[in-house]
Amino acid sequence: MKGPLFYAKILLFGEYGIIKDSKGLAIPFNAYRGALKSSKTLSEKAQQSNQNLLKFYMYLSALETDLVQFDLDRLKLDIEQGMYFDSSIPQGYGVGSSGALVASIYDQYAKNKITVLENLTRDKLLQLKEVFSLMESFFHGKSSGLDPLNSYLSLPILINSKTHIEPAGIPSQKEGKGAVFLLDSQIVGETEPMVNIFMNKMKNEGFRKMLNEEFVLHTDACIDDFLHGNVTSLFGNIKKLSKVVLTNFKPMIPVAFHKVWEQGLLSNDYYLKLCGSGGGGYILGFTEDFDKAKATLKDYKLELVYRF
Asked: Which domains does the chain carry?
């Protein structure tokens, strides 16, 4: 057996803010992908994946919900016969490795599943997001369901609020100088501890005020600029957002990158922001001149995501 491919995702804007109901914008990232496969002889990596699928099966078996039913007998049989998730998506890097796995399991084993081909009303999108949130909570403790949704639909998704999400049309890429890129921190991040730090910070009134009055404001402005192709305004807002994140989300930024972050703000060669929950993995970069950013960041591994 071989299941269809599901892609990685990048949350361009909205990390942490979407937990508190601000806007978010996620896009599929086709450079990394995964699919369910089966083999009688498993490599060490495939064996590990097979064991994880068994744990996931047990979690799904114990789920008490009317939202979704799975063909659990078939899932168990396939796992026993050597099914694993063959994926190039790096784990702990903020690009949705567990999201692609969740999407593939839903696609293969959910009964009466909502398909990508039908008319995706807002209600159906919200139902999918809720199902994926339940499923992905196995991996992260608490999940918005957005990563699997993005991977499943393979469309850019605009999150207006928890109850209002829609597919988004993003401007087609241009052969310009500007770019969105990934900067590899070469550290594996873990979502749950980062989310716990954030939730503890949320107990502080000053932090909540900053989140509403600065972080959310700049995030929403960035999304509007990006969707409307207002590149000049976008970079002004990204710089503000990058500053706010450096000041208020330091625990989520690997220590070795505090200076690199500051250097971008001072030189205006690039601006950095969190990619996912932070703590490691990828850091997201925006630049008006990708060649210049590459020269400045020559000691780091960069990956192109989108061109302006």
From this structure: 6-167 (3.30.230), 179-307 (3.30.70.890)
Among candidate residues 18, 13, 12, 27, the one with its CA nearest the CA of residue 219: 13
Burial class (CB in 10 A: 0-12, 13-18, 19+), 26: buried
131 in Cβ contact with 145 (< 8 Å): yes
Q: What is the pLDDT along the chain (308 residues), one digit of tens a residue?
A: 678 999 999 999 998 888 777 899 999 999 999 999 999 999 999 999 999 999 999 999 999 999 999 999 999 999 999 999 999 999 888 888 999 999 999 999 999 999 988 888 889 999 999 999 999 999 877 788 889 999 999 999 999 988 889 999 888 888 889 999 999 999 988 888 898 899 999 999 999 999 989 999 999 999 999 999 999 999 999 999 999 999 999 999 999 999 999 999 999 999 999 998 899 999 999 999 999 999 999 999 999 999 99
